[in-house]
Structure formats: C-alpha cells, structure tokens
Request: fold
Amino acid sequence: MMEHPLDRPVWHMLTGPQAALACGVGQAVRVDPRYGPFAAALDQSDHAQAALAELLAPGEQAWLVEAEEWPAPAGMRTARTAPLLQMVAESPAPVAPDDEAVVLLGAEDADEMAALAIATEPGPWGPLTRCYGNFYGIRRNGKLAAMAGSRMRPTQEFGEVSGVCTWPEFRGQGLAGVLIRRVMADIVAEGRTPFLHSYAGNAKAIGLYESLGFRGRRNMVVTVLERE
Reply:
C-alpha cells in the first residue's frame, strides 16, 4: 500500500514542495533551523538514523512528526513525546460575512508574534517561522491579541493551518475561529485541502476545529530528539 503523504508530513514537505527550506539530502533532512526544529529520516535503518543524528549539533533538538514514536539514533536521546491528532477539513468553513477584520502580519510584527507564540506554545517557533506562509492577526487596542498561519505543504494537495494562539485575556471571543477561517481560505484558494495537528489531549481546541469542518484523520506522535 502506498504511504499517504500526511502520514509523514515533515519528510514529504522537505523532500517535496518545501525542499528549498531543507538542510541535508538523501537519508535525512531538517528544516532550516531559523524556521524551527522539524526533521525526518528516510526510514529507521542504521544509515538513515546516523544521517539524522549528523544534522544536529550537540544540545540541538529535532521534532519528528510521525505515525508512531521515532526511536532515538545512536548519539541522541528522546527528550519527550506527545500524542497528536491529525485533522483534515474536506469541507472547510468559509470566511463569514460578520467575521472581525484581520490583518496580514509581516516583518514589523515579528517580535509580537514571537512573544505570543512563546507564551502560549502552539508549537515550536523560530525567527522565520512566520515566513512559512501567510500569518494573520487580530489587534485589540493596538496589541496583537491572536494569530494563525500556514506551515507545512507536504504535497500540492494539502496545506497546514498552524500557529493558532491567543493571549489568555482575549480568549473566549471567537478570535481563533475567525483567523482559522481566513487561513483556510488561502489554502483553498491554492487548490489545497486544509489540515492541522492538535495535541490529542486538548479537547477544547479539537472541538473548535471540528466546528470549522475538521475531522480526525489519524493519531500521530511528535518525538523530540536531542543530540548528546
């Protein structure tokens, strides 16, 4: 049976549509560290695992998003793992006429975006994470209250919604839903189907995603490996 690209999204994005962001060739790849810590190996063979370890300097971490926990190669250790739910929106909710106005975020917003992402931890964030794709925000009294954007494109058929986060004082106001609908509109306009990953235990977030048209596709695992 042919492997579905969403079963190994990092490998397919870095050897496919987003190969320009990849460091490493052949047996293992990692995204340019300025974009974040994602990496993948061709398989679990000794050669591929050694290539994966060689991509990192001592103390560096790699995040692998796979169908199952990824074993640590020689010279690396498993720092942590977390179960994920991968969700796909075959019929995504469109932008609503009464949606609050959003703004396209850019380089001038980088510091505020990083502060929000680091404080709320929607996923790993690096200096250029905002450059994966369009990120949108909602401001309240001049402050960036919430944001969401796009990240992985494993094939020409799929685009990932990512970086969804809101400062605690602005939660419960529907901002995340407004932003996700806007990001999905971009993905659909590109001819892609939106997908995303949620921490499996985040029932509130999963409920929101379901209300926007996402349905669970499969369980995944993020394995954080650290070079010793």
